[in-house]
Amino acid sequence: MKPSGVHHVAICVPDVEAGLAFYRDVLGMEQLPRPDLGPGHWLDAGGQQVHLMQSDQPAPGANHFAIRVDDVDAAVDDLRALGVEVHRSGLIPGAGHQAFLHDPFGNFLELNQPE
């Protein structure tokens, strides 16, 4: 598996509109289109993205970062060959092809192959 960059960092916030105002209006990020995934916003941070998700009590894995890959199926195969447990999900229109895993310390990671 060879990453081609960081795709996004997901941050849970209790008020996504206040989060949008800060990241867009204060930090200067550009708001991006986002599929209907519940309350949240996607922002461009110079070629990588920040995903804001509304949550007072984040679910396990809600706060995560996504590694961009060119071929998610090949990346999953490579990781599984090394004994890493990886869970593949289907295509999410507007969000791409995804797979999920934990690092040895329990941090939640996403592999993302954009559409």
The number of strands is 8
- Computed Rg: 15 Å
How far is it from the N-terminal to the C-terminal residue, by CA?
18 Å
**With helices defined by DSSP (H or I, 4 residues minimum), what is the helix count?**
2
What portion of the residues fall into strands of 2 or more residues?
Answer: 35-45%
Average of pLDDT:
89
Low-confidence parts: none
Helical content stands at 10-25%
Topology order in helix (H) and strand (E) letters: EHEEEEHEEE
Strand order of the largest sheet: 2-3-4-1-5-8-7-6
Domains counted in the coordinates: how many? 1
CATH class: Alpha Beta
Helix/sheet category: alpha+beta
CATH topology: 2,3-Dihydroxybiphenyl 1,2-Dioxygenase, domain 1
* Overall shape: globular
Biggest beta-sheet profile: 8 strands, mixed
Q: Report the CATH architecture.
A: Roll
CATH superfamily: 2,3-Dihydroxybiphenyl 1,2-Dioxygenase, domain 1
Structure description:
The protein starts with a strand and ends with a strand. It has an 8-stranded mixed sheet with strand order 2-3-4-1-5-8-7-6, with helices on one face. The chain contains 2 helices and 8 strands. It has 115 residues and is of the alpha+beta class. The protein has a single domain (5-113), classed as 2,3-Dihydroxybiphenyl 1,2-Dioxygenase, domain 1, CATH 3.10.180.10. A hairpin with a 3-residue loop joins β6 (87-92) and β7.
The gist of it:
The protein has helices spanning 16-26, 72-81, and strands at residues 5-13, 30-32, 40-44, 49-54, 64-68, 87-92, 96-102, 108-113. It is of the alpha+beta class. Strands 2-3-4-1-5-8-7-6 form an eight-stranded mixed β-sheet, with helices on one face.
